[in-house]
Amino acid sequence: MWKLMYAQTEQAVSAASAEAAKAAEAAQNAAQTTPGAANGQYSLFVMIAVFFAIMYFLMIRPQQKRDKERKAMLNSLTKGDKVVTSGGICGTIVNLTENHAVVKVDDNVKIEFVRSAVIQVLSREGEKKAK
């Protein structure tokens, strides 16, 4: 009986050492293929960089351009401009301060708005005089 147990143990040990040898050979092969893995990491970095470049040109840059145009429009407001506010109120600017605009909606009806509430200039007073 002891002989049988000893033989089984010996077979298990030899099988385990064979598996360990295979694992060591696989690790050695993986170490030899490391330059290929470096190329994979490089291509991943390139893909991420391309993704961020596309995001910049399709989303961030156009938004910055719209913001710049809006600031220019708000800075160019003058008395007599016909405007539309963010609330949908149409009227003519009768007074401007640094942060506020007074809009004449009807005869004897004037409403004061924050200057940034103006979303569109319909016509300018200077354009009427030129025509």
Q: What does this protein structure show overall?
A:
With 131 residues, the chain is of the alpha+beta class. It has 2 domains: 2-68; 78-124, SH3 type barrels, CATH 2.30.30. The chain has 3 helices and 5 strands, in the order ααβββββα. It has helices at residues 2-32, 34-75, 125-130, and strands at residues 82-85, 90-96, 100-106, 109-114, 118-123. A 5-stranded antiparallel sheet has the order 4-3-2-1-5. The longest helix has 42 residues, at 34-75. It is rod-shaped. The termini are far apart. The relative contact order is 0.08. The mean pLDDT is 81.
In the sheet with the most strands, the strands line up as: 4-3-2-1-5
Question: Count of DSSP E strands?
Answer: 5
Query: Quick check: average pLDDT?
Result: 81
List SSEs in N-to-C order: HHEEEEEH
Helix residue percentage? 55-70%
Rough outline: rod-shaped
The radius of gyration computed from the alpha-carbon positions, rounded to a whole number of angstroms, is 38 Å
Helix/strand/pairing category: alpha+beta
Q: How far apart are the termini?
A: 117 Å
Number of domains: 2
Largest sheet: 5 strands, antiparallel
Percent in strands? 15-25%
By DSSP (H or I, 4+ residues per run), the number of helices equals 3
Poorly predicted regions are: none
